[in-house]
Specification:
154 residues; Immunoglobulin-like; 4-stranded antiparallel beta sheet; 3% helix; 39% strand
Length: 154
C-alpha cells in the first residue's frame, strides 16, 4: 500500500511505449525509433522516469578538460520531506544521421533533507563527447517538458 512513508526515488531502466505502433517493424534491426536515445514520439513512461520529492536544479557549470568534461550543478530538495533524487546527466547527440538524440552520461543518487541543497559533479570521458559543442542537461530525468533540469553547453 502506498502511504508516503518512504521516498525511494526509483527510476525506470527502460522506455514504456504507448503501443507497438510506436516501434519500427520487427524485422528492422536498426536503432532509429528505439530506446530513449533514438525514439522521438511521446512514450507512456520515459527511460529515467520516477517519483520522489520535488527538486530544483541551478548553477550549472560545464567545461572541457584534458580528461573530457566536467559538469557541476546544484540540486535542492524543495519539498517538505526528506528524499532521494537520482540526478541524471544527458548529452545531446553528435552530428550525423545515425547519431542518438541524447545519451545518459552519468547519474548520482543523493539524499537531501527538506530544503537542503548539494552540489553534484560529473566527469565525462573524452570518448563520450563529440568534438563539437553539445547541449547538456542535468536533472531528474530526460530533458523534456515537465522534468526539472538545467541546460547548458559543453
Amino acid at each position: 500500500m502506498v502511504v508516503g512513508a518512504a521516498n525511494p526515488a526509483g527510476r525506470l531502466p527502460v522506455t514504456f511505449y504507448k503501443g507497438v505502433e510506436q516501434l519500427p517493424p520487427f524485422t528492422d534491426y536498426g536503432m532509429k525509433g528505439r530506446t530513449y536515445r533514438y525514439f522521438e514520439g511521446e512514450p507512456l513512461f520515459r527511460f529515467g522516469f520516477g517519483f520522489s520529492s520535488t527538486f530544483a536544479y541551478s548553477g550549472l557549470s560545464a567545461r572541457r578538460t584534458a580528461e573530457g568534461g566536467e559538469v557541476r550543478e546544484t540540486v535542492t530538495n524543495t519539498s517538505a520531506r526528506d528524499g532521494d533524487e537520482v540526478v541524471q546527466l544527458y548529452v545531446d547527440g553528435a552530428p550525423g544521421e545515425d547519431a542518438p538524440r541524447r545519451s545518459l552520461r552519468g547519474f548520482r543518487r543523493v539524499h537531501l533533507r527538506a530544503g537542503e541543497s548539494q552540489e553534484v559533479r560529473f566527469t565525462v570521458d573524452p570518448d563520450a563527447l563529440p568534438a563539437s559543442t553539445v547541449v547538456i542537461s542535468v536533472g531528474g530525468g530526460q530533458p523534456v517538458a515537465g522534468t526539472a533540469c538545467v541546460k547548458g553547453r559543453l
